[in-house]
Amino acid sequence: MSERETWATRAGFILAAVGSAVGLGNIWQFPFKTAQFGGASFLIVYLIAALGIGLPTILAEFVIGRKSNLNTISAFEKLGYKNWRIVGALGLFTGFWILSYYSVVGGWVLRYLGGSVTGAYFGAPAEYFGQISAGMDALVLHAVFMALVIGIVAAGIEDGIEKATKLMVPSIVVILGALAIFAFTLPGASEGYAYFLSPNFDALASNFGEIVPFAVGQAFFSLSLGMGAMITYASYIDGDESLFGDGITIVFLNSFVGILAGLVVIPLLFAQGIDPNTSGAGAVFISVAGAFGSLPAGRIIGVVFFAVVLIAALSSAISLLEVVVAWAIDNYDVSRPQVATLLGGIIFLLGVPSALDTAWLGWFDTLAYKFFLPVGVLGILVFAAWVYGAPAIDELMKGSGLGEGVGLTWLWLARTLVIVAVVVTLALGFQTLFLGENPAIIPPL
Ligand code: PHE
Fold first, then answer.
1. Does the CB atom of residue 254 touch ligand 1 within 6 A?
2. Is the distance from the beta carbon of residue 26 to the nearest atom of ligand 1 less than 6 Å?
3. C-alpha to C-alpha distance for 324 and 90, rounded to whole angstroms
């Protein structure tokens, strides 16, 4: 078997991981959920979740990945815990699951990119979304998006993912920054800022049971945690200096881009007198797209905006596919382009229901957020902190130059508070998942 691939540089690894984290979750979901759940008060809960729960978890994934240098299933075996492969297997399954509908949304983005050039959605954004979001159109663009993802992953770690994300991630930050400055110049933007950034503790208090699981779920989804993406990416590290530094950089940049996206989208909506408190799959496509329709330079802004969303979506989608591709390459004598195509094709098929009916897409998304990712995170944390334990600290600290205290703090935080928080999140989501009139677990048949 040929030698396993590695990142060419440490920056390459960090950018790839940031590319994985920064995606539709940041631009499509985050600003709207923030608006819906009380603006800045949600932001605070989210930041606590990202730092307090997300960071320890990302470090756990890095440790498992870098120590084993293997895919998310074989990693557990290599570390000496064969039975724990079940956690990796769940991650692999979740990778298939998420990419199947993520790619459908990626297809919408492609469609809106074209629609911005021609101004197709300007007149009646809601109708346009209704037409293109489900059915043949959506299916074809889902296929195109998957083909792009397959193309990058097939080119390999260094020549595909690293090269692509090195270009993509800086572009995302620069373009979103430019759009945020543009949004700042619009009349009415200041009301948007007030809404986005001033805390509304009443809204927080009255929806606490809903907000907390969502904020934690959002932190997991947004940081690509609980399904082996970060394990897989870290498995290609060759002599990195500080996992700790990498983790903090990624969490920081990911939150920064989410907030930046909010600073683009929310003022834009306020400037056009559109209520940002719209939820559901179509929010960004209907409300934001609608705002472009009435802007003087709407076409150009639309093209730039959907281009950045597309880049963000692609740089995340490749990490989802890489999880399953890495597993196949590590275990079978197959070529990267072949498996990328084969597995990408299977994922495409799994996404067909979501492409034909947005109710399916919503169902896949809800289960990923509320169930698969938190369960996956729980498994990874229990493994890294309780089962693997002391060697995990050694791996975490290796090359970091930090004192033993930092590692012990991580271990005990992960062992106690973080695990409790994940269990509470799962328990809070339990009601909507399994009980009540329309339990989310039931598919929309
Ligand atoms: N983090 C990505 C986003 O926010 C989604 C993702 C989830 C990517 C899990 C990889 C793994 O859009």
1. no
2. yes
3. 11
- Evaluate if pTM is beyond 0.85: yes
Ligand 1 atom showing the smallest separation from residue 373 Cα: 9
Q: Judge if the beta carbon of residue 25 lies within 6 A of ligand 1.
A: yes
In a mutational test of the pocket of ligand 1, which residue from 18, 319, 324, 365 has the highest number of ligand atoms less than 8 Å from its CB? 319
Q: Which of 183, 184, 208 is nearest to 38 (CA)?
A: 208
- For the chain, first and last CA: distance in Å? 45
Instruction: With CA atoms as reference, report the closest residue to 358 among 138, 204, 154, 134.
Output: 134
Q: Which residues contact 14 (CB under 8 A, 6 or more apart)?
A: 246, 249, 250
> Could you report the per-residue pLDDT of 42-68, keeping only the tens digit for each?
888 999 999 999 999 999 999 999 999
| Residue 184 Cα distances to 253, 331, 405, angstroms | 21, 51, 44
Cβ 311 under 6 angstroms from ligand 1:
no
344 to each of 48, 142, 211, 349, 357, how far by Cα in Å? 35, 11, 34, 9, 20
Phi, psi of 39 (to 5 degrees): 60, -125
Tell me how far the alpha carbon of residue 393 is from its chain's centroid.
Answer: 26
Asked whether 255 lines ligand 1 (CB < 6 A), one says: no
Cα–ligand 1 centroid distance for 338 (angstroms): 24
How far apart CA 155 and CA 328 sit, in angstroms, is: 15
- Whether 20 is in the pocket of ligand 1, judged by its Cβ within 6 Å, is yes
Q: Extract the tokens encoding 18.
A: 């940031």
- pLDDT (tens digit, 9 = 90+) per residue, 170-208? 999 999 999 999 999 998 899 989 888 888 888 788 888
Residue 376 to residue 161: CA distance in whole angstroms: 24
Contacts of 300 (CB under 8 A, 6+ apart): none
Q: How many CB atoms lie within 10 A of CB 122?
A: 19
